[in-house]
Amino acid sequence: MNKIEHIGIAVKNLEESNTLFGKLFGKPHYKVETVESEGVNTSFFKVGDNKIELLEATKDDSPIAKFIERKGEGIHHIAFDVTDIEAEILRLKGEGFIVLNDKPKRGADNKLVAFLHPKSSNGVLIELCQEIKDR
Ligand code: ZN
């Protein structure tokens, strides 16, 4: 793994949270994106070299809706940048981690993503992401 790519925060209302985090960071979010397959609206903030992703559910059975129901708003996942996501999935499986996606899927922000189940990583949902390079 190369570095933390972003930290994901689950919120109930993206518009309100965009305003709140805009005040916190002293600048607005730079992009908003819906990932239909995941049932989320996302927005991204840049803070120095780091990125913060806010996630709002688009439907009641979205993983984000379920997370907020169980735990409330707050830090949802930590995403790590990887160079070769398929190799990393195999490596982590070999190490005994539960990988939720056998095949990486398309996530927000032009990334291929895969998630590790939090029960195999001390309660932390880990996202692997690899930038999709245009060929
Ligand atoms: Zn993420």
In short:
The chain is an alpha+beta fold.
What radius of gyration results from the CA coordinates?
15 Å
Helical stretch tally: 3
- Termini gap: 23 Å
Main beta sheet, described? Answer: 8 strands, mixed
Q: Which percent range fits the helix content?
A: 10-25%
From the structure above, extract its key features.
globular, 8-stranded mixed β-sheet, alpha+beta, binds zinc ion
Overview of the structural elements:
The mean pLDDT is 95. Strands 2-3-4-1-5-8-7-6 form an eight-stranded mixed β-sheet. It is built from three helices and eight strands; from the N terminus they run E-H-E-E-E-H-E-H-E-E-E. It is of the alpha+beta class and 135 residues long. The radius of gyration is 15 Å and the shape is globular. Helices cover 23% and strands 39% of the residues. Strand 3 and strand 4 form a beta hairpin.
Give the helices and strands, then pairings:
Layout: E1 3-10, H1 14-25, E2 31-35, E3 40-47, E4 50-57, H2 63-71, E5 74-81, H3 85-94, E6 105-107, E7 111-116, E8 126-131
Parallel strand pairs: 1-4, 5-8
Antiparallel strand pairs: 1-5, 2-3, 3-4, 6-7, 7-8
The chain binds zinc ion.
